[in-house]
Please model this.
Amino acid sequence: MPAAAPRHPCGQRLIMFNNIYIEEQVAAHPRSRAICERFPQATQISCERYGEVFNPKSQDFRLQKRNPSLILAHKHDGRLLETPEGYGIGGSNNYYFSHMLNCLYDCRYCFLQGMYRSANYVLYVNYEDFIQDIDATLAQANNEPCWFFSGYDCDSLVLEPVSGFAENFLPFFAEHPAAHIELRTKSTQIRSLLKQPAIPNAVIAFSFTPAEVHTALEHKVPTIERRIEAMQKLQHAGWPVGLRFDPMIYHPDYQQQYSRLFAQLFGPLDTTCLHSVSLGPFRLPRSYFRNIVRLYPDEALFAGTFTETAGMISYPPSLEREMTDFCTGELLKHIPEAALFPCGLAA
Amino acid sequence: MINIVTALPAEARPLRDHFKLCDKLQNSAFPLYRNADMALIVAGPGKVAAAAATAVLAGIAPASTTSAWLNVGIAGHAYHAIGSAFIAHRITDQASGSHWYPPQTLAPSLPTENLRTVDLPEADYPEDALCDMEASGFYPVACRFSSSELVQCLKIVSDNNAQPSSAVTAKLCSQLVTDRLADIAQLVHALSDLAGEYNHWHAPHPQLAQLAARWHFSVSQQHQLQQLGRRWQALAGGESLMLEQLQKKNSATEVLQCLRQHLDTLAGNA
Model:
């Protein structure tokens, strides 16, 4: 069993990799070189395309999650995709992108473990191409407001000290006020954000579940208290912050759990400056659900009663409605209706 | 359970002695030795032989559990010292150009290196890889029977530019493996533990077999029963499968219905 990662004096786990796979095409990229220099003890393994390492069938996500490696790659196409119908926080031109595949955290409900065979982290180092695509999309929209959502295939900030993702992307958004970005995260890696002036069109959106769910299912994720502290620091620095309750996880005591969570959150946060709050039901494509159950047959979360509609696994519709209605009602005790967006990203 | 594939009897001999692999299977196309936890097969040189031997070993392994796999053997390298040992992190088949990347999930116990499988002994060593003649036959076949994290190749340098392969004797080969037994044993232990944990995760409920013996379950019903057994283990932990109550049922259908109702109640969102 790999040794537990050592911790920085501030308490955060230090990120370490035993192995770094490097696509030949990006071996000389400055970002690749900087990352490799940061991990001099890591074995560097060359590959032609990252898919050779990431895609083979005979891999076990759960086994690899014990000791994932880092893969540095070039994203050739499909860098920017339109979001599914109904997804958004107020804008009508909505896109999502992923500079990275897989997440340092290990949340048991996460669809990534059902979607990908490998738990290795893929970091696309060609940020400049992503930014070019965002620029082109903005131009095509005649500079109408466009939303760009980060954090679908990964956590937006957890690898920030290594990836420099926010540090490299946010300057573009600072210069293009019509381009809005959401950085969805469970991380407290906000140092790079606090080092730069806040940008009104960049929302740092923190995901939460109740404390009991966090303890049981969100492995390696910072505590609720530490995430609230990070949000407070960002709010104090002028950053728009958002709250994301997506997915909502059922427990027989879910009403008390979510009530307690909302009380815990809305006490310390300045709700007048809260950008947005969104709710999302628990949904997984059937194939992802089956993969995850195969990986974690002992997980009580997946032993409940689910229904399947149009290839998506979810709680029974009546329960899903009940949870959404309850949480909506509770949230509206704390925030105005205009700040609440009840539909999250359907996985 | 761990399966070890070697090419040469000289490689296998120290492993047989160390792990006390006594039983030689009769009527096997390849020399095959085993104990309760390990099987060792001697393939002969070459990737085709390695692939065939791996498949033979897979055929006699227990079907209900997943085994770990390890290819142990000698290899050449341009400049690595004779006797140095490595785990392969990239295997290339020279003839086809195909690559495989054994996941390095275990804590590193040995350095890792590229490994190139060649069809004939090479006089010129590549500077960036070990050279052997078996790994590209062993690895993809073993991965058909196990998850790739449980399949690894360990190679011991037997020849280099200073001491070419013509100097490698059976006695040297055995000595090189003997000198690395501690490392091999550590890797065997780590892989076996990982396979054991993997099998524990996926073990069916121990009482399902009793139900299957009592009533006739169709293939579809068997799948349903396994799923319900999984849900039972997740929701009811080590609790018994209420066999007394189920014994009163008249058919597999009623058994499944009873289990399902009980589980939905346990789940709390029926």
Remarks:
- The radius of gyration of chain A is 20 Å.
- The longest strand of chain A covers residues 179-185.
- Residues 111 and 325 of chain A are 24 Å apart (CA to CA).
